[in-house]
Amino acid sequence: MIFFPHERDWNGTHIGTHFLVLEALQRQPPEFECYTVETEYWGAMDAPNLMVESSAAEVGDLMAATSFHAGEVRRNPYHLRLPAWLQDNVRRGGELVGGQGGAAPDFDFATLYRLRRWRAGVAEPFFAGGRMLAGTDSPAALFQDR
Terminus of the chain with fewer CB atoms < 10 Å: N or C? Predict the structure, then answer.
């Protein structure tokens, strides 16, 4: 499983990383397979297909870890804005991942991703529609019944 930014994450380094990862994947032998998980931070994804809940304790740990990026948080206190972003992901993900007009999950915080399978030199959908992974669920549930 390879995590990397989506192709329109706005930040030039993130976009460059996206295309470097794709280039590396395309250089693999045709029989190479893996899962790809595209992330968002600077720019929202148009089509995420996975929402993963985070607990309040996990959000606290993320805030604390981010606070150690001293130069970054001096110019913009990202760590203090993190909870609001994760809450907004629940709002967006309820519609984008769960389906327009559907019931939002009972999450306080979440991160949105696009999970796909890399097979035969291309990224292909791994499942139809979207999935929501509660903090109490095992990530293995995403790969069962496949």
Answer: C
Residue with tokens 């529609």: 129
C-beta separation of 51 from 139 below 8 A:
no
39 vs 128: which has the higher pLDDT: 39
Q: What is the DSSP string of 71-83?
A: HHHHHS-HHHHHH
Note whether 22 and 105 are within 8 A (CB): no
Kindly state the DSSP code that residue 102 receives in the 8-state scheme. Answer: P
Q: How do residues 73-115 score in pLDDT, each as one tens digit?
A: 999 998 999 999 999 999 999 999 999 998 889 999 999 999 9
As given in the structure block, the two tokens for residue 92 are: 């967006």
Block residue for tokens 């306080």: 108
Q: Which residue has the tokens 């790969």?
A: 143
Contact 50, 112 (CB under 8 A): yes
The length of the chain in residues reads 146
Helix H segments across 4-143?
12-26, 56-67, 70-75, 78-96
